[in-house]
Amino acid sequence: MTAQVIDGKAFAARVREQVAAHVARLREENGIQPGLAVVLVGEDPASQVYVRNKGTQTHDAGMASFEHKLPADTSETDLLALVRALNADPAVHGILVQLPLPKHLNAELIINTIDPAKDVDGFHISNVGLLGTGQKSMVPCTPLGCLMMLRDHHGSLAGMNAVVVGRSNIVGKPMAQLLLGDSCTVTIAHSRTRDLAAVCRGADILVAAVGRAEMITGDMVKPGATVIDVGINRIERDGKIRLVGDVDYASAAAVAGAITPVPGGVGPMTIACLLANTLTACCRANGLPEPEGLTA
Ligand code: NDP
Phi and psi dihedrals of 230, rounded to 5? Predict the structure, then answer.
């Protein structure tokens, strides 16, 4: 079997179009423009690229983009003051503080100071609790993107066996909660899991969020399963730096029914879902109906 490729790049483009169309209607019919504020502290090169991409895509979707670039030695007091000012600003519907933060800043304190209704990354402890109890929340962008692709591919996920490899707060745990919310039977695997290969082979849906290049190989995949590869790893091969996932694509694609590639799978969905979350936050703030198909 050769797996069907789930094209995240094309899917993300469709999500962005949907968001842009909804934003255009909001502006025309309600005179409201959703706004996203992104806060970057320091000069981490990868973070700078992410923030630039987010700004461009926010503009392209017709939203207002507010970028706050602060020096690496910004004090916690100053950063908290900025977050509080953004919380109070009615033109800002979504706030994202780019992680990782410099070590002298308490990331948990800063994230938990964001107004949960504006927490478009879904990392505020209130949103974590709401998601865990099946209530309306802001959902972390990467797992939301994975869920959207799975729903698009399968329709209903009810009753499927899902295995999530990785238990981080930003990917693994919220991914598992979302799959549970869609009535999958969910297993979370991690570095202490016994016989990981056997656990993975039980999965109709296998999500890899490990951070280890090409660790999930074809012999760990159930024939016909859907494989979602969240991993982004830079490795050197044949003298070149290459981007690979946590799944060994060639061997897994020979067994799976469907698979996301790296690059071009989960990655592009993350920013698309950030835009979707900002739109959702704006609709909720204004008591308007939420965009269909763009929330959990
Ligand atoms: P973390 O390092 O926070 O978590 C990794 C998880 O994998 C941990 O729970 C760890 O288990 C588990 N793990 C590590 N080694 C093994 C092993 N040998 N067997 C089984 N489980 C193992 O990573 P993140 O969740 O932040 O990210 C995961 C991957 O997703 C990374 O490649 C990252 O770059 C990528 N990513 C991609 C995004 C995108 O937009 N596409 C967004 C965010 C992340 P334990 O808890 O026991 O240590």
Answer: -85, -20
pLDDT tens-digit map of 15-63: 999 999 999 999 999 999 999 999 999 999 989 999 999 999 999 999 9
pLDDT digits (tens, 9 = 90+) for 19-28: 999 999 999 9
Could you tell me if 99 and 58 lie in one domain? yes
User: Residue 97's CB: how many other CB atoms inside 10 A?
Assistant: 24
Q: Which domain holds residue 69?
A: 30-116
- Domain with residue 164: its CATH number is 3.40.50.720
Which of these, 270, 273, 264, 276, lies nearest to 7 by C-alpha position?
A: 264
Q: Quick check: pTM over 0.85?
A: yes
Question: How many domains does the chain contain in total?
Answer: 2
263 preceded by cis ω (within 30°)?
Answer: yes
Q: Are residues 99 and 152 in the same domain?
A: no
Kindly give, in sequence order, each residue whose CB lies less than 8 Å from that of residue 72, ignoring residues fewer than 6 positions away: 41, 42, 43, 102
**Ligand 1 centroid from CA 191, angstroms:** 10
The values of phi and psi at residue 110, to 5°, are -65, -45
Provide the pairing of β-strand 185-189 with 205-208: unpaired
In a domain, 135, yes or no: no
55 shares its domain with 105: yes
One domain for residues 153 and 88: no
What's the Cα-to-Cα distance from 139 to each of 35, 98, 127, 170, 239, rounded to whole Å?
A: 18, 16, 7, 10, 39
Q: Is the minimum distance from the CB of 168 to ligand 1 under 6 angstroms?
A: yes
Closest atom of ligand 1 to CA, residue 215: 18
